[in-house]
Amino acid sequence: MRIEGEAAIVTGGGSGLGAATARLLAERGARVAILDFDAAAGAAVAGEIGGHAVAVDVSDAAAVGEAVRAAADALGPARICVSCAGIGPAARIVGRDGALSTELFEKVLKVNLFGTYNVMSHAAAAMMALEPTDTGERGVVVNTASVAWQDGQLGQAAYAASKGGVAAMCLPAAREFARAGIRVMAIAPGLFHTPMMEGLPEETTRSIAANIPFPARLGEPREYALMAAQIVENPYLNGTTIRLDGAVRMPPR
Fold first, then answer.
1. Is it true that the peptide bond before 215 is cis, omega within 30 degrees of 0?
2. Of 117, 159, 224, 236, catalytic
3. Which of 1, 43, 85, 178 gives the lowest tally of CB atoms within 10 Å of its CB?
4. CA dist 26 → 4, 7, 33, 52, 86 (Å)
5. Rounded Cα gap, residues 84 and 221, in angstroms
6. What is the mean pLDDT of residues 229-243?
7. What is the pTM of this model?
8. What is the distance, to the nearest Å, from the Cα of residue 82 to the centroid of all Cα atoms in its chain?
9. Out of the domains of life, which is the source (predicted)?
10. Cβ(39)–Cβ(66) below 8 Å
11. The pLDDT of residue 253
């Protein structure tokens, strides 16, 4: 599907992978609505690219529905939806003091997994009402998993579970939406330059990058954005999760 001239939704578009994706889609001629919990960050990127920003907590299904409608009112119905919103706090299942991390587990799943599901559900429902393009497509949904889906490290039980859920629902969602001409894909990024990583000491970052075979560096957010754009433009990509990781396999800790 062509990007130029289409409306797009990018969640988490105020920073990191989402901001890079919003910028690239806008460069290629899309009208981009940024949905972000951080209203100021979302508005800043939207202002930069001539898009529209909506502040929303993706874990709130009703609020997501309102945000998708607000984006459509501002820019037209979206045929492209890229979900990048997420959190990544770390905690052991049972801490050294014996405390459990069930509250954190619930929070991470609500944002990362339920949030992705909420956005996909509302975006796909809106796409189903559109006329198909000349390729028979009504829309494309790109969700964000993580290499932690397969390589979860110590302290990442909640994060890995949430991203595993994102990866696992890709195929059944693609099968369900196939009759409507809507594709569903997921990207599982490895170690990228994001606000989470940029907060680490330089020595720690170098140590992490040393485990990446090639290129032996952290990924650039624009490289994630390029993959998202390639998924949109390649009509035969559907129902699978692509690792984008420089061939890294994460150690236990």
1. yes
2. 159
3. 178
4. 8, 9, 10, 11, 22
5. 11
6. 98
7. 0.95
8. 6
9. Bacteria
10. no
11. 83
Per CATH, the architecture of 7-244 is what? 3-Layer(aba) Sandwich (3.40)
Q: H or E stretch including 47?
A: helix 39-49
Nearest to 57 by CA among 35, 24, 83: 35
| CA nearest to 121, candidates 59, 189, 187 | 59
pLDDT digits (tens, 9 = 90+) for 16-62: 999 999 999 999 999 999 999 999 999 999 999 999 999 999 999 99
CA 145 from chain center: how many Å? 7
**pLDDT value of residue 250:** 87
Over residues 128-175, the pLDDT tens digits come to: 999 999 999 999 999 999 999 999 889 999 999 999 999 999 999 999
Structural domain boundaries in the chain: 7-244
What are 88's two structure tokens? 């990544």
Beta strands in 102-181 (DSSP E): 139-144
Long-range contacts of 61-64 (CB under 8 A, 24+ apart): 61/114, 61/118, 61/121, 61/122, 64/35, 64/115, 64/118, 64/119, 64/122
Residue-level pLDDT at 209? 79
Token output for 116: 């992705």
159 is catalytic: yes
